[in-house]
Amino acid sequence: MKSAAFAYHSPQTLEAAVSLLGTLEDEGVDVKILAGGQSLTPMLALRVARPEALIDLGRIKALDYIREEGKVIAIGAMTSKHAAGVSELIKARQRLFHDATQLVGHRQIRNRGSVGGSFAHADPASEYPAVALVLDMEFKAVGPEGERLIPAEEFFVTYMTTSLETNEILTEVRMPTLPVGAGWAIREEARRHGDLALAGVCLTLQKSGAVISEAKIAAFGVNPTAVRLEAAEAALQGQAPTAENFARAAAAGAAALEEPMSCIHASSEYRRALVRALTERCLAEAAARAV
Ligand SMILES: Cc1cc2nc3c(=O)[nH]c(=O)nc-3n(C[C@H](O)[C@H](O)[C@H](O)COP(=O)(O)OP(=O)(O)OC[C@H]3O[C@@H](n4cnc5c(N)ncnc54)[C@H](O)[C@@H]3O)c2cc1C
């Protein structure tokens, strides 16, 4: 199928894009932001999305950057996932996000797809929203009212829905660097390499002496949004990093999940079992990395 007709706008500055978006919204035009197009163009072609106008951010070079600001890494929304995946800064200072990026789609998709687009698209099976919850990322949005910062736990609302207003553009993703000595891990199960995950888990783990001082764990691909596994986190607090404790925590986290999604590729129970197994393996991996 071909997409339905739409007006195409390609502003060169963020200010022009925000102004145009506000004007079109006020006029009642159904408008969509186009970033890398890796998710939106198939939706247009299948007519799942039928906007009357597209605002392409592709020419706004000011939204393409990766920089360190104190203990935060700031990534411009139009930075490609490839650029994020090969960034030495991210590899050295935020290894969980680096590793997550290697799991996103294929090289071609990472070349075209933007970092901001993945967060704004909010696919429940995407690695990035789960990483955002674990790392307490923040999202910078700009609209006619100005700029605001949205914490990760308020950003992802439900299935492919964020708290961005229709007249707002996501401009920057802000992630704290991994604390020195923290362990990390991300694992997923997909039908083929490069597919979106059937289920996945990511986490960070910090030790204090012989015990775990903090574990932050999230699962993706199981509920309408990525979810923190708070029961698993609580079960690990102050405990020794042993295989027995990891198994107990993983079981608690999986058991506390709200009914996981079910589809022809993976039943609800299979997804729950995946979360349990992947959590256990991630904990062992992260504990071995933590110092
Ligand atoms: C075969 C295949 C495999 C894939 N596998 C994975 C995978 O394993 N993991 C994964 O996470 N993703 C995967 N993807 C999706 C891919 O990562 C997309 O690049 C990503 O979801 C969207 O980024 P984009 O820049 O292409 O955004 P687009 O497709 O251009 O836009 C996606 C949505 O976000 C909105 N949007 C984009 N940017 C902004 C912004 N700055 N402000 C406000 N709204 C915005 C758009 O309006 C649209 O609704 C896969 C895609 C394909 C085709």
TrEMBL record:
<dbReference type="GO" id="GO:0071949">
    <property type="term" value="F:FAD binding"/>
</dbReference>
<dbReference type="InterPro" id="IPR016166">
    <property type="entry name" value="FAD-bd_PCMH"/>
</dbReference>
<dbReference type="GO" id="GO:0043885">
    <property type="term" value="F:anaerobic carbon-monoxide dehydrogenase activity"/>
</dbReference>
<dbReference type="InterPro" id="IPR002346">
    <property type="entry name" value="Mopterin_DH_FAD-bd"/>
</dbReference>
<dbReference type="Pfam" id="PF00941">
    <property type="entry name" value="FAD_binding_5"/>
</dbReference>
<keyword id="KW-0560">Oxidoreductase</keyword>
<dbReference type="Pfam" id="PF03450">
    <property type="entry name" value="CO_deh_flav_C"/>
</dbReference>
<dbReference type="InterPro" id="IPR016169">
    <property type="entry name" value="FAD-bd_PCMH_sub2"/>
</dbReference>
<dbReference type="InterPro" id="IPR036318">
    <property type="entry name" value="FAD-bd_PCMH-like_sf"/>
</dbReference>
<dbReference type="InterPro" id="IPR051312">
    <property type="entry name" value="Diverse_Substr_Oxidored"/>
</dbReference>
<protein>
    <submittedName>
        <fullName>Carbon monoxide dehydrogenase medium chain</fullName>
        <ecNumber>1.2.7.4</ecNumber>
    </submittedName>
</protein>
<dbReference type="InterPro" id="IPR036683">
    <property type="entry name" value="CO_DH_flav_C_dom_sf"/>
</dbReference>
<dbReference type="InterPro" id="IPR016167">
    <property type="entry name" value="FAD-bd_PCMH_sub1"/>
</dbReference>
<dbReference type="InterPro" id="IPR005107">
    <property type="entry name" value="CO_DH_flav_C"/>
</dbReference>
